[in-house]
Amino acid sequence: MNLPQTFQEKMKNLLQEEYDAFIRSYEEEKNQGLRINTLKISIDEFLQMNPFTTEKIPWVKEGYFYPGNERPGKHPYHEAGLYYIQEPSAMAVGELADPRPGERILDLCAAPGGKTTHLASEMRGEGLLVSNEIHPQRAKILSQNVERMGIQNAIVVNETPERLAVRFPGFFDRILVDAPCSGEGMFRKDEEARLHWSPENVALCARRQDEILDHAQSMLKPGGRLVYSTCTFSPEENEGTISRFLEKYPNFEIEQVEVYEGFSPGRADWVEKAAPGIEKTIRIWPHLVKGEGHYIAVLKKVDGDEAPRIKYAKSKLDPKMLKAYQQFAGETLNRTPSGNFIAFHDQLYALPEEAPALDQLKVLRPGLHLGTFKKNRFEPSHALALALSGEDAKNVWNLPADSEEILAYLKGETLQAGGPKGWYLMTVDGYSIGWGKLAGNVMKNHYPKGLRWMG
Ligand SMILES: C[S@@+](CC[C@H](N)C(=O)[O-])C[C@H]1O[C@@H](n2cnc3c(N)ncnc32)[C@H](O)[C@@H]1O
């Protein structure tokens, strides 16, 4: 593999006798992983119907390796949000972040959503997850992944850390900064990261990480946890960033977290003025475990200012809209999603508990999207379908994963069907995947146009 020469020299210098094993790992195939989405399916249920050749990833409860010649990303179960394809080492971040149901959690650099969807499944739908991404296009992908995984309690925003920090001082119990970095740990799977690498870019990334952490720390409650992670090896962006941070913010300390035995401690000898306890931070090496390179630090804010009061979002709904929704829900659902209902133009959402006011922020998804008002009727959203289970809907149309019909449905074709007319929750082997609307003997396809399979 064509690795930058200066990078190789730097790593040789750092790793010394370990360098040969490290560089040999670049000749091995990259590891592939999927993480079961426990918001939609339990681990046991998934394993009973699992069509792939999987092997447990030892450091994450819901994580499994799969072989490079299988394509779980192209299976109907993927579209039903039963799992998320995620690099195995990256799954350690969600595991060590240890989110709890009911907390207020911020994922500050969240796209495309690997860690956000992991945090959400650990939160079990309780509490508030704010998932932010600074780049508009990436924020859209994040929002789609939040939808596919059936997450009900996330607000997806497209903001700068600076603007969020002004709005949410001392607000969150837990913050994840999965920082933009020089990506050295991804060289095996990402050619672009290799091409863009330079010592100058490493220095620029380190400065940007300092700035992001400056804003992140101010949004954390006293007693809260800040988790910092990168997918790079360079000490400047790892032990260096954390040491500079702790020097500036002595009200934080490094937490000792329980880790998988293949993970390695942070290196005090690789940076000037290493913070005390830096060896409690974690390095993941591709020559020591079956995963790419990562760095993780878990910090605790030991004291700080109590949060000022912030404004909460208020329910806002035209009675005509509420009536149309209630009529739809009465005809179609056995369970209606909870939360504060709010309409933005003709779109109806259920806000998560304790949702803050969102005015002036760029919001892609203020909670669970329930649907759209169309003249006096209500049309359910794809997000609502993905958030429901088979028991939640009065009419369910199930398609087996290996059937021709599921392929036809995913391609947007209409299906022949019989039964009472109205909205049907379409399921694949019992797990929701979208909507259909039955009239006569035809099931009209409401699988979103942008998601349809080609060919
Ligand atoms: C490592 S990626 C995040 C991966 C994501 N957490 C996941 O698990 O799928 C870092 C993200 O930070 C975003 N980013 C870049 N510059 C930023 C900045 N100045 N502030 C905040 N985020 C930034 C990038 O667009 C990128 O999506």
Give a description of the structure:
- This protein is an alpha+beta fold.
- It has a domain of 297 residues: Rossmann fold.
- Helices cover 28% and strands 24% of the residues.
- It is built from 14 helices and 23 strands.
- Strands 5, 6, 7, 8, 9, 10, 11, 12, 13 and 16 form a ten-stranded mixed sheet that branches. It has a five-stranded mixed sheet with strand order 19-21-22-23-20.
- β5, α6 and β6 form a beta-alpha-beta unit.
- The model has no long low-confidence stretch (mean pLDDT 96).
- Bound molecules: S-adenosylmethionine (SAM).
- S-adenosylmethionine (SAM) binds next to α6 and α10.
- Belongs to the class I-like SAM-binding methyltransferase superfamily. RsmB/NOP family.
Beta-strand content: 15-25%
What would the average pLDDT be, to the nearest integer? 96
Poorly predicted regions are none
Bound ions, cofactors and other small molecules, one mention each: S-adenosylmethionine
CATH class of the domain at 5-301: Alpha Beta
Structural class: alpha+beta
* CATH homology-level superfamily of the domain at 5-301: Vaccinia Virus protein VP39
Overall form: globular
Give me the count of strands: 23
The CATH topology assignment of the domain at 5-301 is Rossmann fold
Q: Supply the number of helical segments.
A: 14
- Biggest β-sheet, characterized? 10 strands, mixed
